[in-house]
């Protein structure tokens, strides 16, 4: 791959106008592709947004940018699945896992109190584990982890080795979690989908790996969540910069 140019391809789609004019977020996505792969990346992202369970978009933006920085390779986090029977049980387990990753209990409580408010954010919320406050300052936009991808052949090999279904949603979520948890300022991530038909979520951390939780919300619920628990005493501007701009390929290399 050395010497080959890569492009960051990004998509966002909304209903009732663009996001910045109050439109409802429908779908977003990011890919990293060589020039020859840009067409497929654009077409995958277009397809993702046009057939979405959150609604029919009337605004979409797809752009691509040449990436000049060298691409970093990151191993996928180790994966484990926790079966939970109800949203309540799932959320209780999530809280416990986040504490275990090193987030003080009162910060976990404060983050969960803010979840309803954060569910309108179309990226992720950065939450400081010391002050128990949101610190990204990005309002409805949040922080969007971009410039990442997991080449399909390596993902398929990884999925077969782990006995996991090779579905694009898992691929995307594990890629984001692996990039995010690799950053030294990030202590843990909490996520579940804003898609009404998908109730599995996860807690991820360097220490814990990617802990799937099979039931985190009720079917039909359109509120999602993505919180990065960070050490606010470090340089947060550079953390946001890294999450948005450091190009990353996930690569298992045939290991789990
Ligand atoms: N960067 C930051 N935040 C993002 C990104 C990103 N690249 N992509 C999505 N989000 C935020 C945004 O606020 C979404 O509304 C929210 O996360 C949920 O996104 O079976 O599908 O893509 O192991 O709906 C997890 C479990 C699925 C997968 C999560 O999230 C599994 C999912 P969605
Ligand atoms: Mg979604």
Concise description?
With 256 residues, the protein is α/β, with parallel strands linked by helices. It is 30% helix and 28% strand.
Please give a structural write-up:
Homodimer. Helices cover 30% and strands 28% of the residues. The strands form three sheets. The chain has a seven-stranded mixed β-sheet with strand order 5-11-10-9-12-6-7, sandwiched between helices. Strands 2-1-3 form a three-stranded antiparallel β-sheet, covered by helices on one side. It has a three-stranded parallel β-sheet with strand order 4-13-8, covered by helices on one side. The protein has helices spanning 38-50, 87-100, 105-118, 152-162, 168-182, 236-245, and strands at residues 6-15, 24-34, 59-67, 72-74, 79-82, 125-128, 133-134, 148-149, 186-192, 201-205, 209-213, 225-230, 248-250. It contains six helices and 13 strands. The protein has 256 residues and is an alpha/beta fold. The mean pLDDT is 96. Bound molecules: pimeloyl-AMP (WAQ) and magnesium ion. Magnesium ion is lined by residues 193-195, 224.
């Amino acid at each position: 791959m050395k010497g080959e140019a890569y492009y960051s391809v990004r998509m966002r789609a909304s209903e009732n106008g663009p996001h910045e004019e109050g439109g409802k977020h429908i779908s977003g996505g990011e890919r990293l592709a060589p020039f020859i792969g840009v067409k497929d990346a654009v077409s995958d992202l277009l397809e993702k947004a046009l057939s979405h369970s959150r609604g029919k978009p009337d605004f979409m933006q797809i752009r691509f940018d040449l990436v000049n920085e060298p691409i970093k390779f990151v191993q996928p986090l180790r994966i484990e699945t926790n079966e939970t029977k109800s949203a309540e049980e799932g959320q209780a387990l999530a809280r416990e896992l986040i504490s275990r990753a090193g987030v003080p209990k009162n910060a976990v409580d404060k983050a969960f109190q803010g979840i309803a408010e954060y569910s309108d954010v179309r990226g992720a919320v950065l939450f400081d584990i010391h002050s128990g406050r949101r610190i990204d300052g990005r309002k409805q936009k949040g922080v969007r982890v971009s410039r990442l991808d997991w080449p399909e052949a390596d993902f398929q090999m990884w999925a077969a080795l782990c006995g996991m279904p090779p579905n694009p949603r898992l691929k995307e979520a594990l890629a984001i979690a692996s990039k995010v948890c690799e950053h030294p300022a990030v202590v843990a991530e909490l996520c579940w989908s804003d898609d009404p038909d998908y109730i599995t979520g996860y807690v991820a951390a360097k220490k814990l790996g990617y802990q799937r939780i099979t039931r985190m919300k009720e079917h039909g619920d359109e509120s999602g969540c993505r919180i990065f628990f960070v050490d606010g005493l470090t340089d947060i501007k550079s953390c946001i910069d890294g999450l948005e701009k450091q190009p990353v390929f996930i690569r298992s290399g045939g290991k789990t």
